[in-house]
Amino acid sequence: MFDSLDVNCGSLSCEERLGIEEMFGREIVDIVACEGLEREERHERYARWIVSNKQRTRYEEKKKKKKDMHETGGGGGGTMSADPQDYTIIKEGEAEILMRKNEVFYNPSQVDNRDMSIAVLRTFITKRKQEHEAYLLKRTKAATKASEKDSCEPAGEAADESLMNDEEANGECEVSEEVHQDEPCSISKESVKTPEGKGRGELKPARVLEALAASGLRSLRYAREVEGIGQVVAVDNDKVSVEACKRNIKFNGSVACSKVEPHLADARVFMLTHPKEFDVVDLDPYGAPSVFLDSAVQSVVDGGMLMCTATDMAVLCGSSGEVCYSKYGSYPSRGKYCHEMALRILLACIESHANRYKRYIVPVLSVKMGFYVRVFVRIYTSASAMKNTPLKLSYVYQCIGCDSFHLQPIGRTMSKNNSVRYLPGFGPAVHQECNDCGKKFNMGGPIWSAPIHDQDWVTSILADVKSMQDRYPAYARISAALTNVSEELPDVPLFVSLHSLCATLKCTSPSAVIFRSAVINAGYRISGTHVNPLGLKSDAPMDVIWDIMRCWVKNHPVKAQPPDQPGSVILAKEPILQANFARAVASLSKAQAKKVTRFLPNPERHWGPKLRAGRKITSKHVSLLGPQALNGTVDHEDEEPTAKRQKAQEPSTNS
């Protein structure tokens, strides 16, 4: 073929000849070497190939030019840009970062998340130190007791032998669920097994891993604001993000340079290759964290902490139940409690991953804040304590006609003599039809039905936050959330909505104080919830709740409804319990009595999720970012409603 080119195309220039040879060369390779899907069935003509080849060459040159810009500091490289005006300095807490528009992901509304994480991390450092001191005291007492009992036996061996009564061979610190706070499980393997004479019993500074660092702002705040942290490892698999992180570390001075260590790696691989090396692992992905959980639970030391955020609330709250099941292993119910159920689904998923490695979790704080949920759990290793997991999980039966819901525990225990047997739970928890309205049930779960907070931790975190208000940029929001959490009933999963109950019956709503008083006067407990201002947690069964509402409707009659409506069926039954609506002393919480703000509005418009880094901002993103984000211009159409709002507010301010 190339010989025929010499004969027939001898008049072509050298450049044209090389182009034709390259085209025919690819044709020959396609015919001779390619099979199946790799072979091109229709070959391009020479004129068309020249056009596509020029486009391909232009694209490769543009890509190479962009790469050279990054390497020379023109876009997130290792050295800072020659023009400082290219960057915007963002200050949060004691850290400052250099940002360019949407180059690396940064969301200002996540300041609540970072502040809450710092508050929990400070409490963890304090409790870790206390547990270590208690552990050393226990070892000293055990050694003294053993030496007094048998002076011939070496004290060290006796101490180790006595400690083995509380520790199993499958983990350095096995702790039962009831006594986990008093056990020294935050001590790493190295600190326990250090030879005597070389700092035995010395507590090393905590190591923190931020698995998805982006700009590194969170890591920088941890390093600069939390005392007792030895090292913060910031990992990201995006080269631009890691270079930006390095730039921000240098920008924050010597403390950040000595403590924060950036890495370009896949977070999953990094955590798998560093098992039980970090005291704290922080997961804050864009979307679902499910793909990182298996490696994360292996990377935490015994008694360490896993912090995890999930922002895919539409999935967790029941918009796509099948997607939620594929990601988290649970099916959500679309009730008023859907956001709390999202928290419990996430906890159940983490527990499931931990159980595969003879580990289990102990939640210390679980919050729904804004557009995401955030959980803080401690992870322990114990094959025996892991058996209690089925006792902490339940399925949910949600009536499709009214707000009634019921929980079905997965497992139960039966004690005989000194042994405990683990058995499947009794069921079903409900009939085929709802006892209140006669409708069918939807089934969801499994969810975490055990407590999602540790009240001792919540009290300590809240006290720490109040003692240093000026160090938390989002103090008002996190203190309000912690105040609500501190007043929740810890052992009552999910909640009912008073307005939703009244919507079912088509009646006027009693005030929250009156309804709370009726529940308290009936002999049950009730509290609010941090998830929903209208939500009420109570250990009263649903038939008692509906009896109270029947008594309320008797005093406040409603219009007749069709007999097949759920509200009509519920009101057709006579109440067994006669509700007492006299105001009870405990009908108001301490925060309500002191008129403490518990639910705050968003501080500004467009406060919520943001675009992924690198995406082009277009007009369809105005609802997320605001009109000013479009090429740095402000849409003047948005100024008119603002002016109207100001004019509407003027008469009220003058009055």
UniProtKB/TrEMBL annotation:
Segments of skewed composition (Acidic residues): 158-176
Reaction(s) catalysed by this chain's protein: guanosine(26) in tRNA + 2 S-adenosyl-L-methionine = N(2)-dimethylguanosine(26) in tRNA + 2 S-adenosyl-L-homocysteine + 2 H(+)
Keyword list, A-Z: Metal-binding, Methyltransferase, Nucleus, RNA-binding, S-adenosyl-L-methionine, Transcription, Transcription regulation, Transferase, tRNA processing, tRNA-binding, Zinc
GO aspect biological process, one term: tRNA N2-guanine methylation
Basic and acidic residues bias (residue ranges): 190-201
Disordered, as annotated region: 60-84, 143-201, 624-655
Compartmental location: Nucleus
Family, per entry: Belongs to the GRAS family.
Function: Dimethylates a single guanine residue at position 26 of most tRNAs using S-adenosyl-L-methionine as donor of the methyl groups.
The name this protein goes by in its record: tRNA (guanine(26)-N(2))-dimethyltransferase
Natural source organism: Castanea mollissima
